[in-house]
Amino acid sequence: MSDIKCTRKFVEPAKIQALQDLVRSGADSIETLSDVIQAAGNESRLKILWLLTIENELCPCDLSDVLGVSVPAISQQLQKLRVQGLVSRRRDGVTIYYSLADTPFTMMLRSLFETVIPETVAS
Question: b/e per residue, 65-92, with b = 16+ CB within 10 A?
């Protein structure tokens, strides 16, 4: 493996300072985005998001049956997704139904699913 070295002829202090200021000013937003990506990046939660893309709305019992995981485990994963704003819920009597939240991130996620597994995504 070769050593990769950074070589540049000119340093642009103003450019470096502007980018450092930008990183500082965007730190909270980057942290929030990191949390959302981390929540979606878990394999179990990603499967839940994918299933919600396919069916639009499912209850924890449905997800439990499909994924072969206990309802409490599904509920815990759904709670993490809800905290990050990736899913919404509605109550119908005693049953709670979950669906993808309408956010730029979930729209991007839907698009990724359509690209990777196009035959399974609902229109």
Answer: eeeebeeeebeebbebbeebbbbbbeee
Alpha-carbon span 88 to 101, nearest angstrom: 5
Query: In angstroms, rounded to a whole number, what is the distance separating the alpha carbons of residues 119 and 82?
Result: 27
- Predicted TM-score of the model (pTM): 0.81
What residues have CB less than 8 Å from 74, skipping those under 6 apart? 48, 60, 63, 64, 67
Confidence of residue 9 (pLDDT cuts 50, 70, 90): confident
pLDDT of residue 49: 96
Q: How far apart are CA 121 and CA 50, in angstroms?
A: 8
Q: Which residue has the tokens 């019992």?
A: 61
CA 88 to the chain's CA centroid: 13
CATH of 13-120, one of 3.65.10.10, 3.10.20.90, 1.10.10.10, 3.40.50.2000: 1.10.10.10
